[in-house]
Design brief:
The protein is of the alpha+beta class and about 600 residues long. The chain folds into three domains: about 1-135 and about 180-225, no CATH class; about 255-510, Alpha-Beta Barrel (TIM Barrel); about 530-600, Sandwich (Immunoglobulin-like), CATH 2.60.40.1180.
């Protein structure tokens, strides 16, 4: 709804939840943001922008407004102000559009006519972030929504997706999320603006004192800033959930619904099997022993798949190609087929690797695909592990499906982009000498269908404990990797005991951990405490994985309990916890994880 008082020079643009009040009596200013009458979302009138060009500072309230345009069509309603600067030949347009029942888009466009061909640097400051929300409101930044104790982000991000920036009331419920990329129209491209500068900011003070370098090179209006506001009733959790939904609804995720690929959901413990390791190879008989590996792995809960690594590091010593090594293992391809059958008889799937870095001058993309098709056909493997890759060859899925549907694609690296995420249903969450905890990887929570076990090949001692904690904290399986091309770095009996316990919990609650709507880094009640939330699709069960990143024990209030749910207990250590007036109370030691389980009241 648009209310325009031309006499008072005031405009109010409203929808079902909020309204923006703009005054242009003494230049253009944002006068109020109204959402919940008891919360003053704007502390004072504020300029829409302040430009700095050498010694000149140009406020939006300094500019001459030469046209006010009411905007309305079947889906949008709003206002646009055409302006020009009092100095310099700069023209501006500020538009505010009500998109639907609870969102607004604010767009700045600018153009410059320079006196000669030499341009000057133009910096823009947006005062809104300084004045928005109260002093006690919580900012969630796109590049650092929740910080570790050292200030770094506890969210591991992906270059393809930008989290919203949120401002949340101290009640943890009411607030706004601000999105800076139009995923509906430009899922793979930036708009022509400087939103990316705001998205890279990692601390609140830098956000408030933002200074954005503009590109004003022509006299044609260009987008320089665009933000979409959403009203929130459930804080960060709602902001993340709705942002995720807007991205996913633009994608084709049907690959994850294929019945012939559903088996991968429960392949939670994967084993990197170095072919020349005593884990699998008997040097007396010169034979593989998959049954022994599978039996011994029961100490850590059992393995669900084997990645048989049999080419590297021998590859490159002579002229043999990766395909030639299929004949060099015991029994050649027939031996490989027997290996697969023996493992599969024990309920364990088998993957073979493809190495894109071993491509010779006489090979083409077509010949490579045919080699891979041949390997799949002759060995009976269940999946292909794409070494070092974050994508798969074009049209490869169609070629493999024509041979035998149900072959799983798993990349060593997280899928590179939206298209890859649509087609690659498995990847590894791999870390090299990275012990960072707490950390939540964003794709785990955007696309929980993409099974991504965690691993850290060089981890030893406490680093292996951190790896296990990471799995528990993020609700994932693990890629068990003990023989790193001859370097023997095994899990200790204590580690194996933890892994076995974790797998029992993960499988018992797999529909909760891999529900469609997990929320990372939810609000908690104390400093140095971190939590992720998992919920089953039927809403019957909720799990909070929690972690103490501090140096001292945390006791007392931990997380809020969801209404309509009763506390089942703490699943990891069995510690006593209780629900006191809607808050889970307990104790968690430094560096410790916990698993809080809630059941819906029947």
């Amino acid at each position: 709804m648009l209310k325009h008082d031309d006499k008072m020079k005031k405009v109010q643009v409203s929808n079902g939840k909020m309204s923006f009040v703009i005054s242009y009596k003494d230049g253009l200013k944002l006068e109020a943001v109204e959402y919940h009458s008891d919360v003053p979302w704007l502390q004072d009138q504020v300029d829409f922008f302040i430009l700095q060009i050498l010694e000149d500072r140009i406020h939006s309230s300094d500019c001459r407004i030469f046209d006010v345009i009411e905007l309305k069509d079947a889906v949008q309603e709003g206002i646009a102000f055409e302006m020009e600067a009092p100095v310099r030949n700069i023209r501006m347009r500020v538009s505010l559009l009500s998109e639907d029942s609870d969102s607004f888009t604010l767009l700045y466009q600018m153009a410059a006519s320079w006196e000669d061909e030499y341009q000057e640097e133009v910096f823009m400051h947006i005062p809104l972030f300084e004045k928005f929300g109260g002093q006690q409101n919580r900012w969630y930044l796109s590049s650092n929504p929740v910080a570790r104790p050292d200030g770094r982000s506890a969210m591991c991000l992906h270059s393809e997706y930008d989290l919203p920036i949120c401002n949340i009331h101290p009640d943890r419920k009411r607030g706004f999320s601000m999105e800076f990329r139009n995923y509906a129209g430009f899922i793979d491209a930036w708009n022509q603006n400087r939103n990316c500068d705001l998205l890279a900011i990692t601390d609140e003070q830098t956000l408030k004192h933002n200074k954005l370098l503009l590109r004003l090179s022509t006299d044609q209006l260009a987008d320089v800033f665009e933000v979409r506001f959403f009203a929130l009733e459930d804080g960060w959790s709602e902001a993340f959930d709705r942002w995720r939904e807007r991205i996913r609804e633009q994608m084709d995720l049907s690959e994850y619904d294929r019945m012939d690929l559903k088996w991968y959901k429960k392949v939670v413990y994967q084993h990197f099997t170095f072919a020349y390791s005593k884990e699998i190879f008997n040097y007396e008989t010169m034979e593989f022993e998959p049954e022994r590996l599978i039996e011994e792995s029961k100490e850590l809960g059992g393995i669900d798949s084997i990645l048989l690594w049999y080419q590297y590091p021998r590859l490159g010593v002579d002229e043999q190609k990766q395909w030639d090594f299929n004949e060099n293992i015991p029994g050649g391809k027939k031996g490989m087929k027997q290996f697969c059958e023996r493992a599969q008889a024990k309920g364990v799937k088998v993957f073979l690797p493809y190495k894109p870095w071993d491509i010779r001058f006489d090979e083409s993309p077509e010949s490579i695909v045919e080699h891979m098709v041949s390997v799949i056909d002759e060995t009976g493997i269940d999946g292909i592990w794409f070494d070092t890759m974050d994508s798969v060859p074009e049209n490869f899925r169609e070629r493999i499906d024509a041979l035998r549907p149900g072959i799983l694609f798993c990349t060593e690296v997280h899928p590179a982009n939206t298209k890859c995420i649509e087609s690659i249903t498995g990847s590894w969450d791999q870390h090299m000498n990275n012990d960072d905890m707490p950390e939540a990887f964003i794709l785990r929570y955007m696309f929980p269908e993409n099974n991504a076990p965690a691993t850290n090949r060089w981890a030893v001692g406490r680093s292996k404990d951190n790896l296990i904690n990471r799995c528990i904290f993020n609700g994932t399986g693990i890629a068990v990797w003990q023989d790193i091309f001859g370097a023997w770095l095994p899990f200790s009996p204590a580690h194996k005991k933890k892994l076995k316990h974790w797998k029992e919990i993960l499988l018992a609650h797999i529909d909760t951990y891999f529900g469609k709507k997990p929320i990372p880094l939810v609000p908690v009640m104390q400093e140095n405490l971190y939590a992720n939330r998992f919920i089953s699709d039927d809403g019957a069960e909720i799990i909070y994985s929690i972690y103490n990143a501090g140096d001292e024990s945390i006791s007392g209030e931990l997380v809020e309990a969801d209404q309509g749910y009763v506390l089942r207990g703490e699943l990891w250590s069995g510690k006593e916890i209780e629900n006191k007036d809607g808050v889970i109370v307990g104790e968690i030691l430094p560096g410790e994880v916990g698993i809080i389980c809630l059941e819906k009241v029947k």
